[in-house]
Every structure is written in C-alpha cells, then in structure tokens.
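Hey team,

Filing this mostly as a record. A colleague (T.K.) asked me to run one chain through the structure pipeline before their review meeting, and I want the input and output archived in the tracker in case anyone asks later how it was produced. No errors, nothing strange. Just documentation.

Input sequence:
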Amino acid sequence: MMRSKRLMERLAARGISAALIHKRVNMRYLSGYTGEGCLLVTDEGMTVFTDFRYVEQVSRQAPESRCVRTRNGQELHALVREALGGRQSLAIEDDFLSHKEYCYFADNLPGVALHSMEREVERLREIKEESEIASIQRAAAIACAAFDKLLGLIRPGVTEKELATELDYLMLRGGAERTGFDTIACAGANGSLPHAIPSDYKIREGELITFDFGAVVDGYTSDMTRTVALGKISDELRAIYDTVLTAQQMALEAIRPGVVCNAVDKVARDFIDARYPGAFGHGLGHGVGLEVHENPRFNQSCADVLVPGHVITVEPGVYVPGLGGCRIEDMAIITKDGFIDPITAPKHLITL
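Output structure:
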C-alpha cells in the first residue's frame, strides 16, 4: 500500500487524482497481483478489474485491493467510471496502451481528463527496497550456482543450444521461478553477436564461449555474463578478454553514490575504444528489477545520479566480426558507502 501512496503523491503534485495501470509488472509492484486485467489506484486504495479466472488470485495476492469482476456484456469503462467516484483526472500508461485502447478510454470517459503516466511507476521502481534487493540477491545466487555446475558439462562437440537449455534447467532446478530472459550461449565467431541466439553450432577447442543469463525469484531477475575458454585460445582472443576484464574492473572502481551514470560508462568505453575502436557498441549497463532492462542506465547519454537502492549491471564487451567476442557482466547494488556485487562467479579467464 505504501507504494500506491507514493504514486498518488507524485500524481497529486501534477493535479491528477487517479491512475489506471495496465502493465503487469507495474500492477505487481503496486498491489502484488500478477494476473490479467488492470488496476485503478486512487487516494482511497486500489481496485483490480479482472475476470472470473483471476478473482481468487486477487484475494490471495492482493488482499488489500478491491476486486471488481468483469463479465461478458459489461463495458470496462463503465466499471472504471464507477470506481473513479467522480474523480475527473486519470493517468494512463500511454506508452503501453495501443492507440485503439487509448481511444476507448478517451471516448468513453467524458468529463475525465486523461494524462500521461510519464512512467511514474517505473521511476518508483528504480530505487529498490530491502525486500526487493534480497530477492535479486537470491536470484543471483541461483544463477551463479547453475553456472558453476554448467562448467563441468562444456566439452568439444556440444552445441550452443544444448548448453543454453542445460543452463536454464539448472537455474529452474536450483529454485528459480523462471529464467529472466532468453539465455544466450554463443561460441567462436558467433561471439561477435551481442544478443546471439543459441544455435546448433558445435563448440570447438580454442574458442571463447559467452553465456548471458539470469534467474527470477519473487518476480525479480538477476543478470550476469561470463565468457570462458575451451582449451588454449589465441593471443588475440586472450587480449580481447583481458581488455574487457580490465575495463569492467575500472568501471566498478568508479561506482559509488553521487556519480553520474554516463561518467561510469565513459571509464570503460574510453579504455576499450583506445584498443578496439567501435567494437563496444552498447551501453555499459542497465537497471534490473521486475524487468531485466530498467532505468537508470550506464550509457553515454544517461545523466542520472547513482543513489542507494539502484541495482545496475556493468557489462562491457568487445565484438569482432569473423573472430568472436567477449562480455563480462556483474551487478552493482548501490549502498550508502559504495556497492554490493551479488555475482560471485569468478572473472579470471576460466579455461576448460
């Protein structure tokens, strides 16, 4: 309930008296409810609109919320209007609703001014509470344990797809609700693709293999990347690995409360660009929580200032078409004194 009150305080400052939430992660964040439907938030409380399939789920997950059951022949706009209780301003997630859905509310709620939510819930979600951080830490521990077990299964001839599938299984077997995103496993020349899709390619001696994966606990995801070597690799590949590792260590040393995000990105980017110009084309990191990509972000344009409660990845990489690539990723949980890294897997080059 405190989260919904904070939301209403932010909206009240803009002269808005209610909010209609459709994004499921935002409904979950505010109320605990994970099913379908939508959530109305006012200064008097929260109302979930959903159908028969989820009525009991609302009572279990969001006992503080009122549940209004939708039925065939009933128009949602009429139920929302009734629940608004005469309020004449409503924030909606116009960055999520389709044009047709926006027009539905605009046309059927006469006298109610629609306002952009302007990602107010996402802004609240940027700063994690202790319970959220604890869930992320548990998710990270599950992912690290799964990776440790996976190392014993990597051998010449196994495919990227087999390794990705096994890693997913190990995380689920280790206690994850689900994987945080589609697991990446790429070897050899495929390593130059930052978001490679695991294929039937069979890994070979002398190649680097990159794994990017995360586990979910209580809805919160972890995110980590490790690159390992199968057998002896070339001096060129070793130089790439060492460059990425040094860049990440430099960035981690720059992280503390009060630092601007783009300044941390610059530390790693300048180091890599001096050695591999143009080979590091994505941002250094991103916020993690109920979604794997949240704000704030370590990139060249983000001027957000780090504060305690931010959880953000640090993932420099080098990608060379025709040769391969390397990425190393940890997470930084910002504290009042610095940060905590919940990723415990080793970062020295593991040679199998």
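Quick notes for T.K.: The CA atoms of residues 205 and 231 lie 5 Å apart. DSSP finds ten helices and 18 strands in the chain.
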